[in-house]
Design a protein that fits this description.
Shape: globular
Number of helices: 8
Largest sheet: 8 strands, mixed
Distance between the termini: 45 Å
Bound molecules: zinc ion
Mean pLDDT: 83
Order of helices and strands: EHEEHEEHEHEEHHEEHH
Number of strands: 10
Length: 282
């Protein structure tokens, strides 16, 4: 399998999914029907007048296919991303420098593996300037699949937490999710909702790790118990932002949930524990 930050040639990417596509920045094939490879940078983006952007929080804004006029979400390559169901393997493109080209005897581009992502949402955005002025471009918001919120710092207004009614917050999250259409939420909305779900999990845990049931090992700079909010199932699965899908964990348990050999059984344990904990918090 691919290793993050390691570089590969395009034929390796193509054979992984079972494809022989030439120039496309979105690559798919029958060998891996659950995933799609996307490449960022290189000529594809430049010719089309746009570039994909890595955000400070580790997420990416990835532009769809279509080099003139409005981009079409029903175009097969774009629809693979718009369906939001597939794992996205993201690679960034680099031209070899002259020394490399000389020693390799060719100018093949290199593709650096950035990781596995999921499509959180997508939007058609009207370009106001540049080569694509007047065109609507498809913007896919790619979020790391595994440690989705771990690198994603949201400032929680902790002084206010005690005043929040946990049942009201639970119902608000449920209502928000009910009228959410999968593609429809904006980045700002995503940030707002992720904050609600995070605050909710911390309120429910009351400073006790929801896996090992020990008190938080230390307090944070504001004197509150330090717990991290973990998502039990990944973004690609249904119900990502549901109260049932989050657990407030001590840093040890959080790491084990991601990287331990028992991470699958931890999922089952958490589902049961959270179920009971929600019943008790009502
Ligand atoms: Zn714990």
């Amino acid at each position: 399998l691919f290793r993050v930050n390691q570089e590969y040639y395009r034929d390796v990417l193509l054979s992984f999914v079972g494809s022989n596509q030439g120039q496309s920045g979105i690559i798919w094939g029958n060998a891996k029907p659950d995933c799609v490879i996307v490449t960022s940078g290189g000529r594809h983006g430049k010719n089309a007048g746009y570039s994909n952007i890595r955000q400070n929080d580790g997420t990416w804004l990835y532009i769809g296919q279509g080099s003139s006029g409005d981009q079409d979400p029903t175009l097969h390559s774009n629809s693979l991303l718009a369906s939001v169901q597939r794992d996205v393997l993201l690679f960034s493109t680099r031209e070899p420098n002259s020394a490399e080209a000389k020693s390799n005897g060719h100018h093949k581009k290199l593709y650096k593996f950035e990781g596995i992502f999921n499509v959180l949402s997508w939007d058609l955005k009207l370009e106001n300037e540049g080569a694509r002025k007047g065109d609507k471009l498809l913007i896919f918001h790619l979020v790391p699949a595994n440690n989705i919120y771990d690198n994603y710092e949201v400032e929680i207004p902790e002084e206010k937490i005690e005043t929040i009614d946990i049942n009201k917050l639970y119902n608000k999250i449920k209502n928000d999710n009910r009228d959410r259409s999968k593609k429809g939420i904006s980045f700002q909305e995503y940030v707002k909702r992720s904050l609600d779900v995070k605050i909710y999990a911390l309120l429910r845990a009351k400073g006790i790790c929801e896996l090992c049931e020990s008190p938080a090992p230390f307090t944070n700079s504001k004197g509150k118990p330090f717990l991290e909010v973990h998502h039990i199932f990944r973004l690609a699965d249904d119900g990502f932002d549901e109260p049932e899908n989050v657990a407030a964990l001590c840093p040890n348990c959080h790491k084990e949930a991601h990287f331990g050999t028992k991470n699958e059984s931890i999922k089952e344990i958490l589902v049961t524990k959270i179920y009971h904990s929600i019943l008790l918090s009502k």
